[in-house]
């Protein structure tokens, strides 16, 4: 048995219940046993600000955005979609959703808009081709007091002044 007075056999150190190390052990145990649900949507959120994403980045199979008094601008023309179907869940209050995709990407709108308009701008020559295996982007969620704009454009293509004026 340990004897507090014997330097060769010291008593084990007892950590107080409220110590930082006991808290971090609890947190580490919680993280290691937490299971993320399969339908979990990683979400970026902001209040009184915009989210603008463009360039060479990867989009997961499910992405989420939550904005209050802000716009969501997603330019997917140079992005890599990690799945054949990508679900973008957007929830906005007083904000617009603007999505730009390259030709060949099919966009399915399942968003619910309250006090807002849907504007889809296709390229000359008709709608985006619907071929087997075409990458698909599904828009879900809702916006209140905001519009949804979908635009098809080649990577690097600039939006003309008149189109910007008309389409926003």
How is this structure best described in words?
The protein is mostly beta strands and 168 residues long. The chain has one domain. Helix content is 12%, strand content 37%. It contains 2 helices and 13 strands. It has helices at 20-33, 161-167; strands spanning 43-47, 51-53, 58-59, 62-68, 72-75, 80-81, 85-93, 97-101, 106-109, 112-114, 118-121, 136-144, 148-152. The strands form 3 sheets. Strands 1, 4, 7, 9, 10 and 12 form a 6-stranded parallel β-sheet that branches. Strands 2-5-8-13-11 form a 5-stranded parallel β-sheet, with no helix packed on it. A two-stranded parallel ribbon has the order 3-6. The longest helix is centred in the N-terminal third of the chain and has 14 residues, at 20-33. Residues 15-36 have low confidence and may be disordered.
